[in-house]
Design a protein that fits this description.
Blueprint lengths: L7 H11 L1 H6 L17 H6 L17 E5 L7 E5 L1 H13 L11 E4 L9 H11 L5 E3 L7 H10 L4 E4 L1 H13 L9 E4 L6 H11 L4 E4 L2 E3 L3 E5 L8 E4 L4 E6 L6 E2 L6 E7 L10 E9 L9 E4 L1
Helix pairs in contact: 4-5, 6-7, 7-8
C-alpha cells in the first residue's frame, strides 16, 4: 500500500508550525503537552476560520486532490479539502477492511450514492471498492437518476448488493412494492449517512422476499473521512474505531473528561492521522457514542447513540 499516516505528535507539531489557526489556538500550550491537554475544537470557530481555500486553518496551498461540500442546504456550505495523498490514503485504508465486513469476490454492487455537485459519497464508495482486496463487480448507477431506472438496472443485471443512503434505498423498496415486482437477487444492503432502523430493515427484507444482510459502509464524515468501520460481529449501530486513520476520543459533555470505560455515553472527538492540509485535532464529530468492548481490544468497538 502507498498510504501515509502520522502519529498524533507529528500531526500536532505540523499544525503548530504551519497553520495560523493552530498557532494562535495553541500559543499557551507547552510543546510537550499530552493530547488531553490541548483544547477541544469548537466547530463554529473552526469553520469561521476555514473557507473554501482552507483559510487560516490550512497549512499550505491546496494544489491537488479533492474538494467536497456539505451543508449547502443551510446557505452556509462547508468545504472539505483533501490533498491527493490524503485521498489515496483514506480510500486504500477503507478498502483494506471491507472484507472484515463480509465483502466477497464477485459481489455485484450497485453504487447508489449521490455523485457530482461536490458530493463525496459516490467517489468514496467507488474508490474503497476499487482498493478492496476482495474484488466486487461495480455498477456505478448513482442515486441521481430516476428510481425506475435504478430498479430496472438492479433487476436486469441481477445485482445482489445495493449501496446507498437509506432514503434512496427506501424509495427503491417503495417503488418495487407499489409495482408488485419480484425476481430480484438482492441479498445485501450497504447503507451510510444515517441509521436504517429495524422496522425499515424488516420492510426491505419483506419486499425482496428474503432475509437481507445489512452492513454499514462506514461511519464517516465529510470533514474527517472514515472514523469507524463495520465488521461481521458488529451489532446495531456498532462500528470499530478506524485506528490507523484517527485517534478516537469519547468526551463527557458535562465534565470534559476523557471516557475510557464501557457503556458510558460521550461526545465523539477526532484527531485525524492522515490529514495535514487541514489538520483536525480534537475535532467534534457531532455524534454521541459509547464503547462496547474493553479498552485493550484492537480497533475498539463502539455504538453510535
Amino acid at each position: 500500500m502507498s498510504y501515509k499516516t502520522y502519529s498524533v505528535n507529528e500531526i500536532i507539531s505540523f499544525a503548530r508550525k504551519y497553520s495560523k489557526y493552530y498557532i494562535d489556538l495553541y500559543k499557551d500550550i507547552p510543546e510537550d503537552a499530552a493530547l488531553e491537554e490541548y483544547p477541544l475544537i469548537d466547530s463554529d470557530d473552526f469553520w469561521a476560520h476555514c473557507d473554501k481555500n482552507g483559510g487560516t486553518v490550512a497549512t499550505g496551498p491546496h494544489i491537488d486532490g479533492q474538494v467536497f461540500q456539505s451543508g449547502g442546504t443551510t446557505g452556509n456550505p462547508k468545504f472539505s479539502l483533501y490533498s491527493a495523498e490524503e485521498w489515496q490514503t483514506m480510500c486504500e485504508c477503507s478498502g483494506a477492511v471491507m472484507a472484515k465486513g463480509g465483502l466477497t469476490n464477485g459481489t455485484k454492487v450497485a453504487n447508489l450514492f449521490y455523485s457530482g455537485d461536490l458530493y463525496a459519497s459516490f467517489l468514496y464508495t467507488y474508490s474503497m471498492l476499487y482498493y478492496a482486496p476482495t474484488k466486487a463487480l461495480m455498477y456505478n448507477l448513482s442515486g441521481n437518476i430516476a428510481v425506475d431506472e435504478i430498479v430496472n438496472a438492479i433487476y436486469d443485471h441481477q445485482i445482489n448488493c445495493i449501496a446507498g443512503p437509506p432514503s434512496t434505498i427506501l424509495k427503491i423498496v417503495a417503488y418495487i412494492e407499489e409495482h408488485k415486482m419480484t425476481g430480484f437477487a438482492v441479498n445485501i444492503v450497504y447503507f451510510a449517512g444515517e441509521t436504517l432502523h429495524q422496522d425499515q430493515r424488516d420492510k426491505i427484507s419483506q419486499v425482496f422476499g428474503r432475509e437481507i444482510e445489512f452492513r454499514s459502509v462506514f461511519y464517516a464524515s465529510n470533514d474527517a473521512g472514515p472514523l469507524g468501520y463495520f465488521t461481521v460481529d458488529c451489532g446495531f449501530n456498532e462500528h470499530r474505531v478506524m485506528s490507523n486513520l484517527c485517534k478516537f476520543e469519547l468526551i463527557d459533555p458535562d465534565t470534559g473528561e476523557v471516557i475510557t470505560e464501557m457503556n458510558r455515553p460521550g461526545a465523539i472527538y477526532i484527531t485525524c492521522l492522515f490529514k495535514k492540509l487541514i489538520p483536525l485535532i480534537r475535532y467534534p464529530a457531532g455524534d454521541m457514542a459509547e464503547y462496547t468492548e474493553p479498552k485493550e481490544c484492537m480497533d475498539r468497538k463502539f455504538k453510535l447513540l
